[in-house]
Design goal:
Ribosomal Protein L25, Chain P, 7-stranded mixed β-sheet, disordered N terminus, 560 residues, alpha/beta, 26% helix, Rossmann fold
Length: 560
């Protein structure tokens, strides 16, 4: 059974659905939807909603629609539509023929607005947006009715038709619902249903200059598609009375049930589309898919797996109360999956040449190296071994600092992974910089494979690559984009908390030859270094690897 099928943990939404099915509501069917607005790239918070809505439809043998709420052409682009479809598919979900757009229903939604006008439940208002806001009132004071509220249905219909025909300037008139300006719920104080906007729509072009507001259109979209359970995040709880009011006053329509759940909040990041767009537009990051971004495309480029994200969303569960999840938990889910699925490879990020003086200059050996000890079917690969190698600069010290130092130092013996025991006999420095330029060792031919025939044990182990066979490339080291748990909490500006050290690049890294053949998005564990993924900028001649996550798992240690 796949991880898409094995997690059916009970929660309050499932309890509602189970009750509805038991009572025969909706004929026992379950139809959900994931309704993104195409005004940006999806992020990890959207992944939770995707997994929830598609997961419920899967578990109850129902349907989940992918619907684009494209009601605001001034902020929406085809690029975002394409990226959203790619992200949902990459996460492992399919919508088959159930792909819809709010703009497909514009004519039908317009007709329902006419029906409310005829009933005297909607009116055309000449007030500006600023004037409407001023008359709205406060949480403790009622709002003030518009002077245009009592126009006749006939006058409102005429004005509404002329709004659609393009007779009036942008923002000069709106269509508002006539509800209750004294309501304790501000959303019920004669909310705007339509506004005049002249902008190219990604799918409708210039056909419309009159666009529905989200609160007006959303319930109708759900109704038209026959949605049974309209699941949204907690900030829409106060909008539910309006959702119901519109549908109750159009009684011939199917009436879905809106259910709210707590959105995903993750520390050390921001998930406001406005803030993410600002990061991109002001070049604080390299783009929507910058590996430090919490976008699904950024996480994909960082090396996250769909299974890790799905598992994370399952583990955090579905709640009614907002909370903040520790980013370490997300990394824990990632390490769990990568440990099982990523092949181990050798890579030296800060190379230091090691020469084995008693190893023949023209000799070449090949050693078997297991690809993944966690996967018995992963097999082995061949590693070339020669007289001249590269090891990590940090694996050598001129003087061993203490008895617990088990790396290479003059007179010390270590094990080269999969190969031989070597002992340092000398080293050289660059005369200009004073830095170590190469070290010289001897090897024990009887320790082939990394095990001594006399049974002695060597505690230090180093990774290495053959100098003549290594492929040279780049390692891009990514950390958290923000240096505080709640960006902006101190100064009020989240940009102040960007970590200037969240990205660095190491050029001249040396990787084993197999890296050159790896396609973008191939994930590896560089032994002793961390988990890495091949970047889209990589080429066989100059591979580029992105740091996905380190080997240390703080979440697992905290929760033992």
């Amino acid at each position: 059974m796949s991880d898409l099928e094995e997690n059916k943990v009970s929660n309050f939404i499932r309890d509602i659905i189970n009750k509805d099915i038991a009572e025969g509501k909706n004929g026992g069917t379950v139809i959900t939807r994931f309704p993104p607005e195409p005004n940006g790239y999806l992020h990890i918070g959207h992944a939770k909603s995707i997994c929830l809505n598609f997961g419920l439809a899967r578990d109850y043998s129902g349907i989940c629609n992918l619907r684009f709420d494209d009601t605001n052409p001034s902020k929406e682009e085809q690029e975002y539509i394409d990226s959203i479809q790619e992200d949902v598919h990459w996460l492992g979900f399919k919508w088959n023929q159930n792909l819809f757009y709010a703009s497909d229903y514009f004519e039908e939604i317009y007709g329902y607005a006419e029906e409310l006008i005829r009933k005297g439940l909607a009116f055309v208002d000449d007030l500006s947006g600023e004037e409407i806001r001023k008359l709205r009132g406060t949480l403790t004071e009622p709002g003030t009715e518009s002077p245009h509220r009592n126009r006749t249905p006939e006058e409102n219909l005429d004005l509404f038709h002329r709004m659609r025909a393009g007779e009036f300037p942008d923002g000069s008139r709106t269509l508002r619902a006539k509800i209750n300006m004294a309501s304790g719920n501000l959303n019920m104080r004669d909310p705007v249903m339509y506004r005049i906007v002249r902008a190219d729509h990604p799918r409708q072009g210039n056909k419309w200059c009159l666009y529905p507001m989200y609160d007006w259109a959303h319930g109708l979209e759900d109704s038209i598609e026959g949605i049974t359970h309209s699941i949204c995040t907690l900030e829409f709880e106060d909008h539910r009375p309006l959702y119901d009011w519109f549908l109750n006053n159009l009684p011939a329509l199917h009436h879905p049930q809106q259910i709210e759940f707590a959105r995903l909040n993750l520390n050390y990041t921001v998930m406001s589309k406005r803030k993410l767009l600002q990061l991109v537009q002001e070049n604080h990051v390299s783009g929507w898919d910058d590996p430090r971004m919490p976008t699904i495309s950024g996480m994909r480029r960082r090396g996250f797996t769909p299974a890790a994200i799905r598992n994370f969303c399952d583990r955090i569960g579905v709640a009614k109360v907002n909370s903040t999840i520790d980013y370490a938990m997300l990394e824990h889910c990632l390490r769990e999956d990568l440990n099982k699925t990523s092949n181990r490879v050798l890579g030296v990020l800060r190379p230091l040449k090691l020469i084995i003086d008693n190893y023949p200059e023209d000799k070449l050996e090949w050693f078997d190296a297991e690809n993944n000890p966690e996967d018995e079917n992963a097999g082995v690969r061949k590693l070339p071994f020669t007289r001249e190698l590269y090891i990590e600069q940090d694996d050598f010290r001129e003087e061993a600092p203490n008895k617990k130092y088990f790396r290479l130092a003059p007179g010390k013996e270590i094990r080269l992974k999969h190969a031989y025991y070597v002992t340092c006999v000398d080293y050289k420095k660059d005369e200009a910089t004073g830095e170590i330029s190469e070290i010289h060792c001897t090897y024990d031919p009887a320790s082939r494979g990394g095990w001594s025939e006399d049974g002695r044990k060597v505690r230090g182990t180093s990774h290495w690559v053959s100098a003549s066979h290594a492929v040279e490339g780049e390692a891009r080291l990514y950390g958290q984009l923000f240096k505080t748990e709640n960006p902006g909490s101190t100064t009020g500006n989240f940009l102040d908390d960007i970590d200037p050290d969240s990205f660095s690049s190491l050029k001249g890294c040396k990787f084993e030859p197999s890296i050159a053949e790896a396609a973008p998005e191939t994930r590896f564990q560089l032994l002793r270094q961390g988990y890495y993924v091949v970047d889209k900028d990589s080429t066989p001649e100059a591979p580029v690897l992105n740091l996905t996550v380190g080997l240390r798992d703080t979440w697992a240690k905290m929760n033992k």
